[in-house]
């Protein structure tokens, strides 16, 4: 037995003394009161009875990484179903799956069956250690259990034996079942492509590749550089490692990508037949200008300034594209043109790698360009918020959300598409002002009202929108548009807009959509579409036509993570509140000299600008002279880099007098050069990278005799594709002038390490991992050895059969709370005490007192009376015509409690 509040027993002493002094009763009631006191104090102490019959917990950990057999889901579900059929009362089964990260598929449950795997995992890695920790977190500390691992043992990440030891410390054993692909008779794998850390342009250099073969075979080798074939031909591979010497010469600076592919008859593992390496060809920092006007004013001005300029149309950025780039200039570029991973890569490039960013204004930039709620927004020195004073007219908005079954699919971060869409709708609704009206409906084969057209000032049930749901089938576009028409035509607002969100691969039943859209256009209602998917998806043309006939815009969210940003972008565009299309004069601000010797006299008038607000601690060089006083040119350092916001349009219909301004070229050049200054190299410090399998090693060599940095340097690992978050690792001293950091590469692709050294950063040579670490050459025996080692730590065994797993597991100590029973017993004792005191016991005894006078007995009236001497207090009362009250009976002589009560009443009434 245990007590949740044992301190309550201390109350027995004072309460017992109180009962002894003031609550005594003769006989049974006193014993019942004492028992009642003990029961009440016992209930307060929270007693629990622990019984060893509460069952056991088993968490099944399923490896679903790329190296597993293709039918692993079916096999694992069969084993889990067999295990569930053996549960006893109190036994529970949970399921955890893992790839790069663990996912809880089913919490511990004692009833029901496992319904299958529904949560997506990143199969590029196999973090068994994190999966074991997740399994341990499912099992409460007070319960016993086991962990069953279904895996091939080819784990990546940190050593899983540490997690097994943490489980063993809690008494949780790790059992295992080996599920693996058949070991192939032949495996030819590209182990590495080793290139120099960096070379100069037109510098001849040599490099090599290592190919491992499990047996002698003649195969084919193909070498490409940036997609161009340099070498192709047969090669005789010998068992073990084969070193291939190679050489090349590069004409221009930048990042060069080499790919070596091998092919051999009978190769059983094709996933590791490709090796990739990137080589940095050094040169002066380049300026990457992304613009739709390759010969416009901005491109000509920067080219004439002597900068190393690379002009390209907007494209989906990666960190590979930004290697060797000192600053990125976005001229009126929509955020969707860069892609969601590209926006992440651009943010990491500025904050972590020390790059520069310049953004210029226009109808496709800043808030109207979709940069609000994007990873780039925190980089900018201006805020993209929409304030109440910006609004020109109120609007009515009808939002139609796809609630088909496809919206229930999860994305890599574990959320569903519907949850991301709901987050976007909520973000859009928060931009509306109190006078606006809005309605939200979710549509699958029918329309489901979340709330009708309502004024924002009355409050919106945003929680209902955020919860969302996914129904069945696809979205019926015709039904959705009819619902939007019925809602929006109820409003009399000057601006009325319908926003349809639909899956570009699952939009069905358009019905009479053309007639519905024609009716809406006749009533000056516009319709825009957000399509989830690619522009090439089956129903993308239908969504384009809806937007075209509705007089609105169409967006395609290729990445569901971009939905909140796109919803905000469309709302800002409809509200027409973030772009000022009227001319505005400019004035110089105190920070204008930061860009060089620029004069504040003779400033031009701009034809329009993006309305933004200066952030705290940002510098402003130019601002408008209108009622907004808005920043036109602002700048600030951000992270390790620098950013500039120029909210006027450099070359377009709203340029105004800016095009003929004499100092325009100097201003544009000054903006770009100011951002380039943030990427100054650290003198004499050298950073190197080395990849050993999937383990990255970064070394930093400091100049001898130089003072040590004030803060310990750290290494930040940036994913080249921008799809993962940066990883920061501390660097440790290896000798007096060298620091080192190591980190596992959790997936294939290019990785860009940077070293933070005080306020400066050093960009280390990038490295590549051509395929998932699990496919590195090796034997299946290594995986078996790891699984056996995990089991040996805590006494686990190999489970060839699921039979008897629960029977062999120790049962948990069940907790039975006794407080409710004690309270019930206390109530029964209380009733018994009342009954005993009223019906079964004598009246309460009091201490006897000496009689004041001698009272003659009524039974012997002739007896002589003997009178005692009187004291002052015993003087006789004056005679009265009324009868004297009866003499007070002696204490203890009353026959019943009722007689005593009557006597007390007579005394009070003086009768």
TrEMBL record:
One Pfam short name: VWA
Biased composition range(s): Low complexity: 851-870
Location of the region described as Disordered in the Swiss-Prot/TrEMBL record: 851-911
Domain VWFA: residue ranges: 396-570
InterPro entries, alphabetized: Class_I_gatase-like, VWF_A, vWFA_dom_sf
Classification via Gene3D superfamilies: 3.40.50.880, von Willebrand factor, type A domain
SMART domains membership: VWA
Signal peptide stretch: none
Protein name: VWFA domain-containing protein
Source organism of the structure: Myxococcus fulvus (strain ATCC BAA-855 / HW-1)
Source species taxonomy: Bacteria, Pseudomonadati, Myxococcota, Myxococcia, Myxococcales
